[in-house]
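Mods, move this if it's the wrong board.
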Amino acid sequence: MDFAGAVDGYSIQRSTPSVEDHIRLRRVGGLSEFSREAVEQGLPGTIFSVLVKHEGVAVGMGRIVGDGGCFFQVVDIVVAPEHQGRGLGKLIMSELMGFAGRELPESAFVSLMADVPADRLYEQFGFTRTAPRSVGMSLRIRRP
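Not the wrong board. C-alpha cells:
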C-alpha cells in the first residue's frame, strides 16, 4: 500500500478498498448497490484506486478500472456524507487524474458516468459532456 499523504486528519492511500468498505461506502454514499459476489469479482479489475481514511476507517474512495490499454472508466467516487464538504472528492479525483496523466497511454479513452451535481466536480478535471456526438447508456443485469 503506497501512502499518498494526509490532509486535515484524513489519510489518503493508494489502495483498493476491501469488499466490506466498498459495499459500505457505496451504500452510505447513496450509490447503487452491488452484491457481495459482484464486488468480489469486480475489485480485482482495479487499475488504480484511492482510499481516504479518518481515524483508520475508510470514509471515501475512487477507482479507475479498464482494459489496461485503450479504455478506462472512473468509478466509485464517493465520500461518506458526514465527511463531505471538506474537498475530499476533489482530492480523490486529483489522485486518480494524476495517475491517469502519468501512467495511462496517451491515446487512452477515460470515461465516467456523472450524477448531477457531481458533474461540476468532473468538469474541473477536464471531463466534458459527449452529447450530442454520443450519449451515455447503461444496462443493469437483473435476474428474477
